[in-house]
Amino acid sequence: MDPTTTRTLGVCNLCEAICGLELTIEHRAEGDRVTGIRGNPSDPLSRGHICPKGVALADIHSDPDRLRAPVKKVDGEWVETTWDDALDLVAENVARVINTHGKDALGIYLGNPNAHSLGSATHGVRLVKAFRTRNRFSASSVDQIPHQFVASLMFGHQLMIPITDIDRTSYFLVFGANPMASNGSLMTVPDFPNRVRELRRRGGRMVVFDPRRTETAKIADEHFFVRPGTDAVVLLAMLHVLFAEGLTRPAAYVDNVERVRELVADFTPECAETLSGVAAEDIRRITREYAAADGAAAYGRIGLSTQGFGSVCQWALNCLNILSGNLDREGGMLFTEPAVDFVERGLIGRGHFDKYRSRVRNAPEYGGELPVSVFAEEIETPGEGQIRAVLTIAGNPVLSTPDGRRLGEAFDKLDFMAAVDIYLNETTRHADVILPPTTALERDHYDIVFHGLAVRNTARFTPAVLPKPRGARHDWEIFRDLVLRIQARLDRKPPLAARLRERLTLSLSPTFLIGMLLRTGGRTTISELRKHPEGVDLGPLRPTLPERLMTRDKRIDLAPAVLTDDLTRLRAEMTELDGADGLVLIGRRHQKDCNSWMHNTERLTKGRARHQLLMHPDDLAARGLTDGALVEVTSRVGSVAVEVAAADDMMRGVVSLPHGFGHQVDGTRLEHATKVTGVSINDLTDPERLDLSGNAALSGVPVTVAAL
Ligand SMILES: Nc1nc2c(c(=O)[nH]1)N[C@H]1C(S)=C(S)[C@@H](COP(=O)(O)OP(=O)(O)OC[C@H]3O[C@@H](n4cnc5c(=O)[nH]c(N)nc54)[C@H](O)[C@@H]3O)O[C@H]1N2
Ligand SMILES: Nc1nc2c(c(=O)[nH]1)N[C@H]1C(S)=C(S)[C@@H](COP(=O)(O)OP(=O)(O)OC[C@H]3O[C@@H](n4cnc5c(=O)[nH]c(N)nc54)[C@H](O)[C@@H]3O)O[C@H]1N2
Ligand code: SF4
Ligand SMILES: [Mo]
């Protein structure tokens, strides 16, 4: 190896698979450059896995379009400025808005990459808490709130989410997830393709329910098309079959089993067939096979949680695992025991629902957050509590939340907006100031969140791979400075003692804090992890119940009334749906996409276009359309013009657009991204469509498609 080249271990933080990496770094006078990235075979969790995005991590670091210094808008033009100036500008304006209009006048939105940054976990959370605004939003309410809501009601903590024991299961039932593209979610499962191969080699089966024959469906033993938004009736029918055929064997710590039997009595497989398109006989057979398997896991993700009955679906899925005896069983669904146990240690609250409601629409909060679907109306509607200033942190809600176009327009009506982000994009272009932190390769990392959701207990600490450039700031330093500078300018400051305490805690680095958490956790230490940068193995998942339950009585209530009451709404809506024949829209992910933000790397965007509306050939023919035609897709909320592609992988009556497309930044920045064609699916999704939990129902949006 060239003496100016070194090898070092790193980590990918682009998705929940948290793959370990091996990087080749060239040291040159003008700075270090990553010249190669491979999977790290000695990582006990990811075992050498890497996907195309992992390789593209290097492109984020070298991207000339990425922001490296703060910028502010002066007379409509972006100009670079100093950190002191930018931070003061944000502090003055945010403090002014709070002083004049009250704490709720500040709206905060946290995007997905926060979950992938140690500094956000340790310091971002404190920033959000410091301002006590009720107008807190995040990507969670276009994603996994139903999982959290149901977990808090059944297991006593919002992050007690059962994880598939994929390495030992013999029956893997998948609803509304495509881990072959997404690499898994609320299930950290790097190397999914090989784990499925192993599952099938030991005689296990994978069965997928999805309105599209996805990459995952294609490698499954069986795939069933299910009409979007109707999974709840399929799952309730499966529960019906478990009871009807005497297949239930709940643990002794489960209450209200009989109540569930009564509730599902009229959800027969025949009724589910009419609504969902899945044959009654298939529902019966799959339920029997699942119940008979020696360790089975029923798992459902985004396609299941982002629909009108997302919470009912997640509840029914838990009931299925519990009643069949597969919760807390090897090869079934298990709870993790991470080295930093955020559940047991109370680092994150248990979760609460409907403690207060949004001002305009009266929508309930979950866990201290309002549904992001109410964000725009809270900015647009005058009155006490109106949002006047917004801070977005690592998020692009203009592309990622329902009716994003309207949200972008609302941002322009604000008194002030700031963004902590590394790019000028569809959201941050509405800001007055953008504060860009260092990127993943430049900061120390420990996956507090994802070790706790992983299919195996492991721990890994990764020191920064590249030096912090001179003058750059880590995200946690930005959060620290914002809290201190804003608080100093508030009319109603917290008491001096509290502020001093805050200053002290905020000055401790994330690495120091993680070291303390590891030490008090007792399973490993940071010095052990520094000696083993590939990660340490803490063993497979194990049965832990009922001790690990966070419910006060260490029992599981199988029928929490808040959830079961929603069956009334389900019955009413399903009656309406009966016989409906219009088109409905769903989303999709591609292996080379990363929500809305990795489109500025050529490596991930060259090759075949993947922005098209996918539609079954019969549906095309019925409208006199041909493959490749330009069509207008219209929903209640708006219209977009996009090319259509014939795809017999689609269920009839269902069309699909990828999410995270529709880039619209002009000017010199984001050169590549603006060349990526396509439209934003969220210019069609509807903020009025919500699950009980407040989560957006992004899936199954009624649309029409016509030639343009
Ligand atoms: N219709 C539809 N909509 C969806 C979905 C869907 O399936 N269908 N999926 C939903 C889901 S699951 C999610 S998680 C959301 C995602 O929604 P968001 O989190 O709002 O969007 P992202 O595209 O992840 O945007 C990430 C932002 O963070 C910035 N960024 C990247 N790295 C860093 C960093 O290290 N620090 C900082 N400060 N910024 C950084 C990027 O430039 C970008 O602006 O979208 C949701 N929206
Ligand atoms: N390559 C890539 N990987 C990613 C991301 C990315 O953008 N790109 N994003 C990351 C994020 S933030 C998340 S949250 C995860 C999400 O991880 P997954 O949940 O695996 O994400 P998707 O690939 O969107 O899979 C959702 C599936 O649900 C199906 N579906 C839609 N509506 C319904 C329905 O009503 N019923 C049923 N049964 N199925 C339905 C869709 O066809 C799709 O196949 O992925 C993560 N990983
Ligand atoms: S699967 Fe790909 S994007 Fe996800 S962590 Fe691994 S390398 Fe990164
Ligand atoms: Mo997500």
From TrEMBL:
Pfam families: Molybdop_Fe4S4, Molybdopterin, Molydop_binding. This is Molybdopterin oxidoreductase family protein. Keywords: 4Fe-4S, Iron, Iron-sulfur, Metal-binding, Oxidoreductase. GO terms for cellular component: membrane. SMART domains: Molybdop_Fe4S4 (SM00926). One of its GO terms (molecular function) is oxidoreductase activity. Residues 5-65 form the 4Fe-4S Mo/W bis-MGD-type domain. It comes from Nocardioides pocheonensis.
